[in-house]
């Protein structure tokens, strides 16, 4: 088991820059290429396991992690208990209780990443405060970093307290731990010229900006509801954008752009593009209708070895039902694009023929894709279980 002391840790903060640097905008995307692989995707199995009464079966922040040769689904409950469920159903569930009081307490938790049982990272903090804690399986704090102190006050204006979402990835080839933090959107449109990513190396206390939003946002004065989403795949940083068809790839070593592709899903006809479609200050009903009726790329995952990359696209639907009510957010139609690790397209599949699934809770193991059946609109939904449909990628 590797000590956290030998890990190079990087934190990528999504912020906004009030000065446009044209050199940071990436070039015109190239057209997507088809992979040389000939593959099919088919349903092969379903799995389920019992969950505790404090586990929310609908939470989208589910994590998958392989630790000591065992595959786990990991949840953080609203009672600050980290629960690790073995997918094989043969081993016992592991609970790690996060302290609320005393010297090892962690409050205002926003997200977490489990590297192994003795290296568990948390992002926490009230308001604009961002603190990283590293704990072990006994909930003892091993180390912590206050990002506000490290990055100094000049960065604080870029950190927002609302709409925080986080992604964590471990690059096993380089022993680097990346934290992705997105803090938008900001409310003062006139100051928002672009979002950028900020890479921070904890061990070296060095920062580097990279990865601005695509130039299309700036040219058309679009005010995106989502900025940049990322994942680490085979040592590369992959950026995708909920309201753009583009995917960009950055070097994990130099943070330099390597390629940008235009990867429009053949099932996507109405991708949402920002404020021009809903106005500057929509009410809750207008916003919900807008998000339901438009497409969006909302998740990108990979398997452990990085052989396949999966990008999920939420497909737009008529927001108003025949009874006059607004369609439920769980009533989601979606498709998935499957790429090889060089971002060549292998296949696309629409999942409309399946009963209600919840693709926000999805993960991949080798050539198998697991998509959750934990949807209250599904007749088989059971709040005491976690249920998955298992799909296999079969290549000639």
Tell me briefly what this model is.
With 396 residues, the protein is mostly beta strands. Helix content is 5%, strand content 43%.
Keywords, please?
396 residues, Neuraminidase, 5-stranded mixed β-sheet, 3 helices, 5% helix, 43% strand
What can you tell me about this protein's structure?
This protein has 396 residues and is mainly beta. It has a single domain, classed as TolB, C-terminal domain (Neuraminidase, 6 Propeller), CATH 2.120.10. The chain is built from three helices and 26 strands. The strands form six sheets. It has a five-stranded mixed β-sheet, with no helix packed on it. The chain is globular. The N terminus is likely disordered.
Question: What's the layout of helices and strands?
Answer:
Layout: E1 8-17, E2 30-31, E3 39-50, E4 63-67, E5 70-76, E6 81-86, E7 94-97, E8 109-116, E9 119-124, E10 131-135, E11 141-146, H1 147-151, E12 165-171, E13 176-182, E14 194-201, E15 206-210, H2 215-219, E16 229-233, E17 236-240, E18 246-251, E19 257-262, H3 284-293, E20 296-302, E21 309-315, E22 333-339, E23 345-350, E24 358-365, E25 368-372, E26 385-395
Parallel strand pairs: 1-13, 2-19
Antiparallel strand pairs: 1-14, 3-26, 4-5, 5-6, 6-7, 8-9, 9-10, 10-11, 12-13, 14-15, 16-17, 17-18, 18-19, 20-21, 21-22, 22-23, 24-25, 25-26
């Amino acid at each position: 088991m590797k000590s956290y002391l030998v890990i190079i840790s990087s934190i990528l903060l999504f912020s906004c820059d009030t000065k446009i640097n044209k050199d940071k905008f990436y070039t015109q995307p190239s057209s997507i290429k088809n992979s040389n692989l000939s593959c099919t995707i088919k349903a092969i199995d379903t799995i389920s396991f019992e969950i505790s009464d404090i586990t929310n079966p609908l939470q989208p922040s589910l994590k998958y992690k392989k630790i000591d040769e065992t595959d786990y689904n990991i949840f953080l409950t609203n009672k600050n208990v980290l629960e690790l469920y073995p997918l094989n159903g043969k081993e016992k569930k592991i609970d790690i209780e996060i302290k609320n009081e005393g010297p090892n307490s962690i409050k205002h938790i926003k997200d977490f990443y489990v590297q192994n049982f003795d290296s568990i990272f948390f992002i926490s903090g009230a308001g604009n405060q961002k603190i990283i804690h590293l704990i072990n399986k006994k909930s003892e704090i091993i180390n912590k970093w206050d990002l506000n102190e490290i990055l100094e006050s000049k960065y604080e204006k870029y950190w927002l307290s609302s709409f925080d979402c986080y992604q964590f990835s471990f690059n096993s080839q380089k022993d680097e731990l990346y934290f992705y933090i997105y803090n938008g959107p900001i409310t003062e449109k006139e100051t928002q010229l672009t979002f950028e990513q900020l890479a921070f190396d904890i061990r070296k206390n060095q920062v580097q900006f990279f990865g601005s939003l695509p130039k299309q946002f700036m040219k058309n004065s679009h005010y995106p509801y989502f900025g940049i989403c990322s994942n680490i795949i085979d040592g590369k940083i992959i950026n995708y954008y909920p309201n753009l068809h583009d995917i960009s790839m950055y070097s994990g070593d130099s943070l330099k752009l390597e390629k940008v592709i235009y990867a429009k899903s053949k099932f996507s006809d109405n991708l949402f593009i920002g404020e021009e479609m809903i106005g500057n200050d929509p009410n809750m009903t207008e916003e919900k209708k807008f998000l339901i009726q438009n497409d969006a790329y909302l998740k990108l995952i990979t398997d452990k070895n990085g052989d396949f990359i999966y990008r999920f696209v939420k497909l737009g639907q008529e927001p108003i039902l025949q009874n006059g009510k607004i369609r439920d957010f769980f009533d989601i139609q979606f498709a998935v694009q499957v790429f090889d690790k060089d971002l060549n397209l292998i296949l696309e599949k629409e999942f409309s023929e399946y009963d209600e699934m919840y693709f926000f809770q999805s993960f991949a193991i080798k050539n198998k894709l697991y998509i959750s059946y934990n949807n209250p609109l599904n007749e088989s939904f059971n709040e005491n279980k976690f249920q998955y449909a298992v799909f296999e990628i079969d290549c000639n």
